[in-house]
Give the backbone structure.
Amino acid sequence: MGVSRLAYLGVHATDLGAWTQFSTDVLGFEVCRDSEPGLLYLRGDERHHRLTVHVGDSDDVAYVGWEVASHEALEAAAGVLEHEGVEVRPGTPDEVNERRVLELAHFTCPHTGVRMELTVGNETLLYPRFTPTRPLSGFLMGDLGLGHVVLLSSDVQAAAAFYVRTLGFGLSDYVAAPDGAPVGAFLHCNPRHHSLAFFRVPMSPRKLQHLMIETQSLDDVGTSYDACLERKITKSSLGRHPDDRGLSFYFRNPSRWLFEYAWQLRSIDPANWTTERYVIGHGNGWGHAGLFDPEA
Ligand SMILES: [Fe+2]
């Protein structure tokens, strides 16, 4: 037993007004009516929310929410983490209410410093139905979870091994630099090729590199690309990654970390998966020009 899927992402942001407009005009996520002063709930499917944006004096990740199947699974995961010497604490009643879950425990990731939350019973809201705020088919979430989140770590192998040992993730692949040094590690917890990844980016100003959202159609990626071009917020051209095989591009949000909108990602069978290795620049994939350029 371990993590079932990525449930939600919480971030701090300095400009909630800009995030409200960005969510509506670019992401296509609804701003929930029960958002509060200083807290935006953003909705992308039938879950109450998938993103929370808290007003703060930084523009980076606040927490990453992972879903486990049951109270028993939560207790078991906490026990394994404690055995590794990682302190696991229960969420306060206010945190449980704010996240709209039944149960919450959290720990600090020893490899990134990011607060990781394990949750049971995330609130679902059937009506009113989720309706994208601009013409989009919608997002592939559901049993696969929110998407994938990529965090920065100086030792991606050690970070990946920790999540394999403690929370039941499987290692999808490594990405190495041309000299063979691992620069990326990609982990799955269900048929989505990866839900969590670590990347080594020296001198990054933040812990969160990107959040990938999978769209229902190729046109959703295309019209999103147009919307980002118009606003001059694209970070990369269109491209296809060699490992998850999705067609995607990257764009900046008001906090300047990246979203990736992707279509037709590879689906895997976790029970029969064998770890793969890719080397940057060895004829793998195409496009995504500009992705690793330093921030302007
Ligand atoms: Fe990605």
Residues 10 and 52 are 5 Å apart (CA to CA). The radius of gyration is 18 Å. The pocket of fe (ii) ion is lined by residues 148, 150, 210, 212, 260 (CB under 6 Å).
